[in-house]
Amino acid sequence: xxxxxxxxxxxxxxxxxxxxxxxxxxxxxxxxxxxxxxxxxxxxxxxxxxxxxxxxxxxxxxxxxxxxxxxxxxxxxxxxxxxxxxxxxxxxxxxxxxxxxxxxxxxxxxxxxxxxxxxxxxxxxxxxxxxxxxxxxxxxxxxxxxxxxxxxxxxxxxxxxxxxxxxxxxxxxxxxxxxxx
Length: 181
Prior knowledge:
By secondary structure, the protein is of the alpha+beta class. The protein has 2 domains: 17-113; 124-181, Zinc/RING finger domain, C3HC4 (zinc finger) (Herpes Virus-1, 2-Layer Sandwich). Helix content is 32%, strand content 20%. It is built from 4 helices and 7 strands, in the order αβααβββββαβ. It has helices at residues 3-39, 51-54, 65-75, 153-158, and strands at 44-49, 82-88, 99-105, 129-131, 138-145, 150-152, 173-174. The strands form 2 sheets. Strands 4, 5, 6 and 7 form a 4-stranded antiparallel β-sheet that branches. β4 and β5 (138-145) form a beta hairpin. The longest helix has 37 residues, at 3-39. Residues 132-168 form the RING-type domain. One of its GO terms (molecular function) is zinc ion binding. Pfam families: zf-C3HC4_3. InterPro entries: Znf_RING, Znf_RING/FYVE/PHD.
């Protein structure tokens, strides 16, 4: 392999590795905030992540979405009742300084059926986390039967007795989560 190819490969590896490393650091900080909120009796927490000030090596990366996706992937198995990763910038933030904010809550999970260790935690908040096509929030998704369209559990529960909002087929049921290899 030529020297320039090795350099290119190293750069590509760094661009793949850095978002995961950064996300792990942010999740650790967020977990500490969640624990502190819980110690105060709280049921929610948020954490601001200014990623491009922290990661100048990738500030010009055209694939900035990799940071948001790395956060979602790192948080998907935490089992929050509500999880949102918001990308924001405003008059005080330039595009270079755009920020991701993690917001999560865990209210109602202590009493929720199917969330205990006996069933492996396969209750609310489990499965693949993705953007719901209805509320546009990043939450654990469920699949409607028989059509297979995916949406978050909260929106699915509001549809009881109504047809699929995407294809209008009658809904006969829904999965408890959406799991992908």
